[in-house]
């Protein structure tokens, strides 16, 4: 039977393991919030003056939330493995990518609000 990553190395201090788990759960909450925002945008917000913009923004949020949720497990496992084997913690682009997605979504909403006819 092949060795699994969680059988390698030593058990890290449980406080670090629990902190890693809390970070994983925070990433999941963020992913779910993005998907929830996409649902609200697609179902409850009236159409924007620019055709297809509401649907496109909802799709961006849904895709971002889905990918974030999927990649958050990979991040958790890589950090857990690094702690078990006493290696440096791996770098991640998740905060950079999600930050830019949120900024882009916010900019689109701001533009929609500013160009909306009174």
Q: Which SSEs are present, and which pair or pack?
A:
Blueprint: H1 14-44, H2 53-85, H3 94-115
Transmembrane segments: 24-45, 51-73, 94-115
InterPro entries: DUF202, IM_YidH-like
Protein name: DUF202 domain-containing protein
Overall helicity = over 70%
User: What is the H-and-E element order?
Assistant: HHH
* DSSP summary: helix tally: 3
Name the average pLDDT.
Answer: 89
How would a crystallographer describe the biggest sheet?
none
End-to-end C-alpha gap: 67 Å
Which blocks of ≥5 consecutive residues have pLDDT under 50?
none
Which descriptor suits the 3D outline? elongated
Percentage beta strand: under 5%
Q: Round the Cα radius of gyration to an integer and report it.
A: 19 Å
Which class do the helix and strand fractions yield?
mainly alpha
Kindly describe this structure.
It is a single chain. This protein has 118 residues and is an all-alpha fold. The chain is built from 3 helices and no strands. It has helices at 14-44, 53-85, 94-115. α1 packs antiparallel against α2 (53-85) and α2 runs antiparallel to α3 (94-115). The longest helix is centred in the middle third of the chain and has 33 residues, at 53-85. The radius of gyration is 19 Å and the shape is elongated. The N and C termini lie far apart (67 Å). 13% of the residues are buried. The model has no long low-confidence stretch (mean pLDDT 89).
Which features does this protein show?
118 residues; mainly alpha; 3 helices; 73% helix; 0% strand; DUF202 domain-containing protein; transmembrane; IM_YidH-like; transmembrane helix; membrane
């Amino acid at each position: 039977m092949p060795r699994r990553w969680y059988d390698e190395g030593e058990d890290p201090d449980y406080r670090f393991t629990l902190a890693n788990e809390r970070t994983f759960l925070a990433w999941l909450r963020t992913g779910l919030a993005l998907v929830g925002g996409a649902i609200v945008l697609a179902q409850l917000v009236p159409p924007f003056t620019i055709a297809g913009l509401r649907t496109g923004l909802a799709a961006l949020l849904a895709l971002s939330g889905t990918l974030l949720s999927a990649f958050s497990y990979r991040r958790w496992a890589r950090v857990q493995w690094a702690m078990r084997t006493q290696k440096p913690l791996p770098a991640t682009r998740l905060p950079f990518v999600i930050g830019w997605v949120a900024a882009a979504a916010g900019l689109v909403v701001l533009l929609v609000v500013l160009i909306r006819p009174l």
